[in-house]
Amino acid sequence: QKEVEQNSGPLSVPEGAIASLNCTYSDRGSQSFFWYRQYSGKSPELIMSIYSNGDKEDGRFTAQLNKASQYVSLLIRDSQPSDSATYLCAGYSNSGYALNFGKGTSLLVTP
Amino acid sequence: DVKVTQSSRYLVKRTGEKVFLECVQDMDHENMFWYRQDPGLGLRLIYFSYDVKMKEKGDIPEGYSVSREKKERFSLILESASTNQTSMYLCASSQHTGGSDTQYFGPGTRLTVL
Q1: Taking a C-beta distance cutoff of 8 angstroms, is the pair A53, A67 a contact?
Q2: Does residue A52 surpass a pLDDT of 70?
Q3: Do A106 and A21 meet the contact criterion of CB atoms below 8 Å apart?
Q4: Cβ contact (<8 Å) for A49 and B58?
Q5: Do A33 and A91 contact (CB within 8 A), yes or no?
Q6: Which DSSP category does B8 fall into?
Q7: Cβ pair A22, A5 in contact under 8 A
Q8: What mean pLDDT, rounded, does chain A reach?
């Protein structure tokens, strides 16, 4: 079973702080990873994708991938209350069709 | 912008009814997916399709079937709805196979089976 693991949280950070969300995966063949944000009662929306080892930055968001350690992370700088949501990590299975999703980490940004 | 639409946001059905959930995407994507999402269980893949009339079982296909007669439309069918199929159903689409394509989600259908 190819798994993507996330700490369910909740992760609570004060407004303006850096939120660090982590994800590990078991399938060494996974090449591409995605972070989705999901507000309560809504569908997931893409935040970041990352395909290569290292960091990828987009505004306040930085995704990090370490394939040797099978580890993906998402940093949110200057966290805002509007960032409060569940963050889903996902990686492709060997078949290349299906994304394996983690169960998500709940983030709460307190004013 | 990619747009994935689902036929209903909320649906209430009775046990034993046949239920159709429709999904339409407007970006000419080859791949389409149906997931269900339940608290504590995360997103689970029911079926996916990589071309018209082609389908593959996901992790939890039991009790479901699908139909893809046109490239833009992917239907999920509950032949005889049961209470354990009460869930949030999410449709997604992506460009093509290759293991790097973003999946875009529709707004979801919250189905309640009484």
Answers
A1: yes
A2: yes
A3: no
A4: no
A5: yes
A6: -
A7: no
A8: 93
